[in-house]
Write a structure and sequence with these properties.
- This protein has about 650 residues and is α/β, with parallel strands linked by helices.
- It folds into three domains: about 160 residues, Substrate Binding Domain Of Dnak, Chain:A, Domain 2; about 140 residues, Rossmann fold; about 240 residues, Rossmann fold.
- It is about 50% helix and about 10% strand.
- The strands form four sheets. Strands 6-5-4-7-8-9 form a six-stranded parallel β-sheet. Strands 13-12-11-14-15-16 form a six-stranded parallel β-sheet, with helices on both faces.
- Strand 5, helix 13 and strand 6 form a beta-alpha-beta unit.
- Helix 5 packs antiparallel against helix 10, helix 9 packs antiparallel against helix 10 and helix 11 crosses helix 13.
């Protein structure tokens, strides 16, 4: 009798968000990412482990026991290392392209070619200038901006004769020395991307260690792009401060013109917020009760942080708001936009509006955004949405009645503003004192994406609740922050529900000290912004290290990406490791096909840089491993401080 091989059944309802599950429970006229994930099973194991090479067209070559080398002779370690470097370069390109557009808009502002933009935060501009020793006394904001933009342009385009200043002036001295010693300090963003892609071409570098060191250099170029993007967005649009709103699909209002902004770049979305306020009357004239804006992904995070626009959902469920029948337009810019949104929109009345030359979708509306006509283009978008509302008419909508309270807007400046009510001279000591006393058991940044290899949002929530119970101060960015926004963990009520006694005391002390500053109480998790705003969290880690007199690898600070998905997540994780942080990843990237490359990521990186990856797909196990990494560092820091005190000497700063 022949054995019957049963195909593993994969449940498409891979989510814990009740609003997502409510939409998926309906009879839908089209497929979604959840359906397409099921249809893709089983996925290719060669690609999953990184041992499929498509760099030249003699392939694809796949490494097996029977065929341990590609046609050119490349082994598994070369193929995996090349693929890893290309992934990091892809993430670096995405973040840096974002920052490049911010830089070019500021350059246009200087040249009087961006009339709708202005310097919203002269204070942040001066702070950046002082960091780079650019004179500010007796100079106009535009004169200072010209020097800052020139510095940014140099850090992006320098071919030779220097290193990236944005790293040298934002990392600890120990990290800068380490990067120079290991020859991974980038000359510039564009030079690193060009030389890195060349290095992976057929017939080029076959040394896995050399390739990985180039990947770490590329990750530092990624850090640069992210930092420039965050810094200059703050100058252009203002430094985020605490905002109180709501999140999830329940923020959609059937009576209004509903517009979702989606992607990553705030250049147009900030104008759309302004145009929506200006054209509210036109929406009312069309029969609507007004205009309801909402955010998706990191464009959503940008307008949440600065404008209080409510988030509707995060990456994985981006198609589902359209399926409520109430979204009149979804405006997309760049990155993490599923082409599937257009097919969904065609089953409803929704207009998908693309706005970037390098991110178009067949069948969508296209508005050619440019900084010289920013408000004109934003008004065009709003009017397309109003026409969509007219077409919707009396068509029934089905909107889940699910939403949660959200407190967001925690730039590092906003956090220090809160801390300064307790320690005005050195706000960071509010954290370092709590770490020294044991009130806090560490700090963890949650970052990254969504990935249906895990259950959507589940790992984010499980790990956060476990660490909060163990008195870890929690930060979040990107779609991780989106998970917490939707599911109530950015609400003040979550502090009493999930925080351990130490974390609760820490947050309540801040509440009491800032009662006259805040609209309400503080949340369990501090939302620090979009993907590029991971640089804010790294600045906090750097400040903690500097205050404690040690380098970053000695502080109890870790990172977790429970549902890493994109090349951007790989590049972020790589610079977190390079900066010296334990970095948990809940979806294992394609490196396990080479024991050598995998070993470098998990252990050798620790020996050289102090940071290391933790691959762990089980959320409860991940929480244990992250806490263990924090506990080890807390113990080691205490021992070093006691030894330093005993011998009346400074604590060792080296890893």
């Amino acid at each position: 009798m022949t054995d019957v091989v049963k195909k593993k059944v994969v449940n498409r309802n891979r989510a814990i968000d009740p609003a997502v599950l409510e939409v998926l429970a309906k009879e839908l006229p089209m497929d979604t990412a959840y359906d397409r994930y099921v249809a893709q099973q089983p996925q290719c194991k060669f690609g999953d482990t990184g041992i499929c090479c498509r760099i030249c067209i003699q392939g694809p070559c796949r490494i097996t026991a029977k065929a341990p080398k590609g046609v050119c002779g490349a082994t598994a370690y070369t193929i995996v290392a090349r693929n890893l470097l290309r992934s990091v370069l892809g993430g670096t390109s995405a973040h840096s392209d974002h920052a490049k557009h911010i830089l070019l808009t500021l350059k246009a502002l200087l040249e009087d070619h961006a009339p709708d933009y202005k310097i919203e935060s002269p204070e942040k501009l001066k702070a950046i200038a002082e960091r780079f020793e650019i004179p500010v006394e007796g100079r106009t904001d535009m004169e200072i901006l010209a020097d800052v933009v020139a510095l940014g342009m140099d850090d992006f385009s320098r071919i030779a004769g220097g290193k990236i200043k944005w790293i040298e002036k934002t990392a600890t001295p120990g990290r800068v020395q380490k990067f120079n010693d290991c020859d991974i300090m980038p000359t510039s963003v564009f030079e690193t991307i060009a030389s890195g892609m060349s290095q992976t071409h057929m017939g080029m570098d076959a040394d896995p260690v050399n390739l990985i060191f180039k990947a770490l250099e590329a990750s530092l170029a990624d850090y640069t792009g992210m930092h420039v993007g965050t810094d200059l967005s703050d100058v252009l649009f203002g430094v985020p401060a605490p905002v109180y709103t709501e999140a999830n699909l329940g923020v959609i209002d059937e009576a209004k013109v509903n517009i979702a902004v989606h992607g990553h770049n705030p250049l147009l979305s900030e104008m759309i917020v302004r145009a929506a306020r200006e054209l509210e009357g036109e929406a009312i004239d069309a029969g609507a009760a007004g205009i309801q804006l909402m955010g998706i992904c990191c464009t959503g995070n940008e307008v949440l942080m600065r404008q209080g626009v409510p988030p509707a959902t995060n990456f994985m469920s981006q198609e589902l708001p359209i399926m409520t029948g109430a979204i009149d337009a979804m405006v997309v810019d760049v990155q993490c936009i599923m082409p599937g949104v257009q097919a969904v929109a065609e089953c409803f009345h929704t207009r998908i509006i693309t706005t970037a030359k390098n991110a178009k979708i067949p069948g969508s509306y296209y508005v050619d955004y440019s900084e010289d006509k920013a408000m004109e283009k934003a008004r065009e978008v709003i009017r397309i949405a109003i026409n969509g509302y007219k077409e919707r008419g009396k068509t029934p909508c089905s909107i889940p009645n699910t939403k949660s309270k959200v407190v967001a807007g925690f730039s590092l400046e906003a956090m220090y503003n809160l801390f300064s009510t307790i320690n005005a001279d050195a706000p960071v000591k509010v954290i370092t004192d709590a770490l020294k006393s044991g009130e806090l058991n560490g700090v963890v940044l949650f970052a990254g994406c969504n990935n249906l290899k895990a259950v959507h949002d589940e790992n984010h929530v499980i790990i956060a609740k476990e660490l909060a119970k163990n008195n870890v101060l929690l930060l979040a960015t990107g779609c991780a922050a989106g998970s917490y926004a939707k599911l109530g963990l950015l609400a003040p009520e979550a502090v009493d529900a999930y925080a351990g006694e130490g974390l609760k005391a820490f947050i309540n002390r801040l509440n009491d000290a800032n009662a006259d500053k805040l609209e309400g109480k503080l949340p369990l998790i501090f939302h620090m912004g979009s993907c590029v705003d991971n640089s804010r969290a790294m600045n906090l880690a750097t400040d903690i290290a500097n205050d404690l007199g040690v380098d970053v690898p000695k502080i109890p600070f870790a990172v977790s990406a429970p549902e890493a998905m994109s090349e951007k997540a790989i590049s972020i994780g790589s610079w977190c490791v390079t900066m010296g942080l334990p970095t948990h990843v809940g979806v294992i990237p394609p490196v396990t096909g080479s024991e050598l490359v995998n070993g470098i990521a998990l252990q050798i990186a620790h020996d050289v840089f102090g940071g290391f990856f933790i691959w762990e797909t089980d959320a409860n196990e991940a929480a244990v491993k992250i806490q263990s990494a924090l506990d080890y560092r807390s113990w080691k820091l205490k021992i070093h401080e006691q030894t330093a005190e005993k011998f009346a000497s400074a604590a060792s700063a080296a890893w």
